[in-house]
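Technical annex B. To support the medicinal chemistry partners, we prepared a structural model of the target in complex with adenosine-5'-triphosphate, based solely on the information shown next.
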Amino acid sequence: MNTPILAVEHLSMKFGGLVAIGDLSFEAKRGDITALIGPNGAGKTTVFNCITGFYKPTEGMIRLGGRSGQQFLLERMPGHEITAKAKVARTFQNIRLFSGMTLLENLLVAQHNKLMLASGYTVLGLLGFSGYRRASAESIELAKFWLEKANLIDRADDPAGDLPYGAQRRLEIARAMCTGPELLCLDEPAAGLNPRESNALNALLMDIKHNTGTSILLIEHDMSVVMQISDHVVVLEYGRKISDGNPDFVKSDPRVVAAYLGVEDEEVEEVLIEVGDEQVIEQFDAEPDREHGPGASSSMMAGAVSDTIGHSDDRGERITVSKRASKAQQVDDREARAKAKAAAAKAAAKPVAARAPKSAAPKARTVANTLPAPRGGVADRLVLIKGIGPVNEKKLNEHGIFHFDQIAAWKKADIEAVEAYLAFDGRIAREDWVGQARKLARTAAKPATKPATGKREGSR
Ligand SMILES: Nc1ncnc2c1ncn2[C@@H]1O[C@H](COP(=O)(O)OP(=O)(O)OP(=O)(O)O)[C@@H](O)[C@H]1O
């Protein structure tokens, strides 16, 4: 029992330069309800499309273990064989019923293959060939069975298009179940349902889980559905798996909270400022990469997929997620920095004598031209120097540096002293803060030119 029915191994799917899935591996156990969750654009439907043969993955394997012991490599099979031989059925994000047909007819159409086989692919079926009649009667029985399970039997003869939305969703599932699937893939079955319809859906899915051998793979945004009925949850963000476990584990995984439920960028920024990661903060300050990263919105429900997913392509090119793009990555970074900060604090708390012998203690380095306060009470905007962000500007001010001319006058020893307290390594020289400051100091020193037109101040 509980052996994997589905094993997804190192699955990648690229659309041109866009990596929709990057090196994804997970398993779904037989008889379980496995949920695949993640923000919009995380790649969930693409995973379904790879499993059901709509897409051929760029890399990776999708192994399905049949009840009979047969193994299927789905990525190598055409879509119709995935349904017929491997017995994988699916529903779609958008309802795809024959709205003009009755509920019963919809469920009979789903059994078309079985009926065609029984007819011998000839007119014998129409002529009342007994094998066909038996198959036809069985199909009707099966359809009725699933209409009852879906609580739709009373409307068997109504057009499917007349059903309320939630009932149409259940009809789709009933239709998929009529094909006798081993794996049922449901793409957002609870989308647009009201709470009563959601409960009816949960009941139907639990019934399938307990009373058929069918395993369920579920894409769902509705967390009340996911957390109530899933045995196992796999979380995607930007095509990568960021968490995998039972609902309780996933629910409290900080990476999931950040990625899926959303963390305000300001909150992440606050932490980074706290730990003094200027470089990352400067990435936040920059214009968002609207083409690849999330837009201005911090809601991860609206995040776009990046083509910078950690993944190495067939040319050996290494692609990484930008820190701003991945909320889960931000959580990892935050944790790593918090650890580093704690370690630094611990080291600092040790008695000085324990850290270094007195004779070896370095002489404290100081900057020569510091000021107690900005001249005239107004500091220059040091952030105009490329490489200085608001955090470093604040630190420089705290150390008595307020003006471009102060930086322009730095000698090697001053630079070393500044680098020591900004914890930089060669960056001041690399970014030529002194040269930049000289130019800015010259501009600042120029007297403001009078308007040549003689127009009054404020006129346009
Ligand atoms: N056929 C395609 N061609 C190009 N890009 C595609 C194609 N199919 C999907 N994508 C892109 O792949 C990314 C993942 O899309 P996918 O639909 O798998 O995400 P999702 O997690 O299912 O999102 P949602 O929750 O909104 O349905 C998206 O950026 C999407 O635009």
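Notes passed to the chemistry partners:
The CA atoms of residues 42 and 238 lie 5 Å apart.
Confidence is low (pLDDT under 50) at residues 271-324, 351-362, 450-460.
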